[in-house]
Amino acid sequence: MDSFVVSARKYRPLGFDEVVGQGHITTTLKNAIDNNHLAQALLFCGPRGVGKTTCARIMARTVNGFDAESGDGSNNFNIYELDAASNNSVDDIRNLIDQVRYPPQQGKYKVYIIDEVHMLSTAAFNAFLKTLEEPPSYAIFILATTEKHKVLPTILSRCQIYDFNRIEINDMVVQLQKIASNEGIDAEEEALHLIAQKADGAMRDALSIFDLIVTFSSDNKVTYQNTINNLHILDYDYYFKLADHFHGGNLAGALLVFDEIIRNGFDGHNFLVGLEDHFRNLLVCKNPDTLKLLEVPENLKNKYQEQAGMLSSSFLLTGLNLMNQVDLSYKQSKNQRLHIELCLMKLTQLENAIKLSAESKKKVTT
Predict the structure, then answer these.
(1) Of the residues 146, 163, 180, the one at which a domain ends
(2) Prediction pTM value
(3) 110 SS3 class
(4) Which of 104, 137, 163 is where one domain is finished?
(5) Over the stretch 169-221, which tens digit does the pLDDT of each residue have?
(6) Are residues 158 and 279 in the same domain?
(7) How many CB atoms lie within 10 A of CB 54?
């Protein structure tokens, strides 16, 4: 039996063109290499799983003209990776500095990739300063970190800084669709959107979740239902039903839907956050200019627009404000279920309250 390779490793980009969602970084690096304007000390910073170490490895191979797929091992003599989380002492940095003194045996540059560089001790940072500021002509240092604010200002001032973005949901969905196609997996777009949302901007997390759902599904299919079951995510339909109950003033219906959600094992606070997101999405649909902010599958956009047409902006804004207050006080509540149920009761009466307020204003003006 062939050994399984996770998608995050199997589909790790081998060239700048394959990197997802970081066009501003890859274009700058390619131009710097082509025009021979590459700095010798670079700092890659940004959230986890967005391609910092991947871009560092691609750059290290590119400046030396190595082929990532050749497998001849020649790049092993030129590319050094150091995990600063477990090698953060002065002695570790001194050993690295000793290595820098020797020119490369093959290729043009020796590239040192230091991951999680913010974990270095202050003494280690200080020992690294001089070498980082005036490295030999054949040495390039690439520092990677998720917490730039923890890196000493003296280090930052000696580096060319590249800020990596969180990867957008649509970019992740496109990449997941490519991988599903390559693997012969039938994947529903709604499921891939959920995976991308759960990944919170990290491509590596999205690929890990994708592998999990594929393993969960015995028929080699990634369906919306399997995804919400495995990731324990609330179905969109619950929120659409609740919004309809709020609009119709159906108190009993709203409480019964919430009871079903709780009996299915969902956390009340996560439900509340999801309901806030639903109201936000409905509010976004009210204006064609903000419709692009709606990050849901295409087949759901029409459903959101239809429901948004039924509900007034006043209702959505007041409801969002009410839920935000409940969200802030949720953890302090002694009876958290009642706390949310009270919020649902107010939401079912909100349309009537807005109408009464409007009528009273008319009477005052007349």
Answers:
(1) 163
(2) 0.80
(3) strand
(4) 163
(5) 888 999 999 999 998 888 888 889 989 988 888 899 999 999 888 888 777 88
(6) no
(7) 23
